[in-house]
Amino acid sequence: MTDKPTVSVLGTGIMGAAMARNLCRAGLPVRAWNRTRDKAEPLAAEGARVTETPAEAVEGADVVLTMLYDGGAVLEVMREAAPALRPGTVWAQCTTAGIELTPYLAAFARDHGLVFYDAPVLGTREPAEAGLLTVLAAGPEEGRETVTPVFDAVGARTVWTGEDGAAGSAGRLKLVANSWVLAATAATGEVLALSRALGVDPQRFFDVIEGGPLDMGYLRAKAALVLEGRLSPPSFAVATAEKDARLIVEAGEQGGVRLDIAAATAERLARAAAQGHADKDMAAAYFASFDDGEQAG
Length: 297
Fold this sequence. Notes:
Elements: E1 7-10, H1 14-25, E2 30-33, E3 49-50, H2 54-58, E4 63-66, H3 71-81, E5 90-93, H4 102-111, E6 115-118, E7 121-122, H5 125-129, E8 133-138, H6 144-154, E9 155-162, H7 169-198, H8 202-209, H9 217-227, H10 238-254, H11 260-277
């Protein structure tokens, strides 16, 4: 292998496409596959080779990077790729899969002689496009020299959480971080909805908290998406956020704790999706406060 590993990117949605572009821009040879090929085709202009099947994408690859909807989708796609997987290939599993499925993914890696890295990322569309994600990674020292150029191309930093990818320490940290992100997003929507119900200009609220410990750049950014009607294209879609919220609730249950806020957030996101907002930014959870899913004023 050269110092520029060949990378197979399986899944070119919001995050996967951005990561593939940054891999191309870093000069790494990239093969890209997506179930809906049209979503992968634009990557050809960046220098990626778009393939028809997962097996074609992974053939001869040094690193396989998966960024799919959930753990079940990852396992399904990797099974399709299995005939072309080469023992010793590094697998960077970046999908937020949850703690229940990670051991099954690691077992698949063992069965096929892959070097497994549990490697979810923190960040949404904008940092992904800019190559500024934070990569949370767990996996063996052996193989890191191969996967490091990949992580460096897609992220601003890599935080190593352990040497055993099968233990899922990186994925567990990702769920903890996402629990805060989703709670803050849901709270933002409720603040805006309550302001509307009480006839309070949201700007008065922002003026009151400005510069103090309650002020948050994230709060202002998500509120602006709602107030200015900029919910598409999403940085992180409602449907995907709901999936993550449910993974967080399940993880809490397995750990013997009740996560009421995460559970309520999952329900808010589900209502927003049912109202037709599934493909909008997760800030659209705001609409779940209104029975008819009405638009902002």
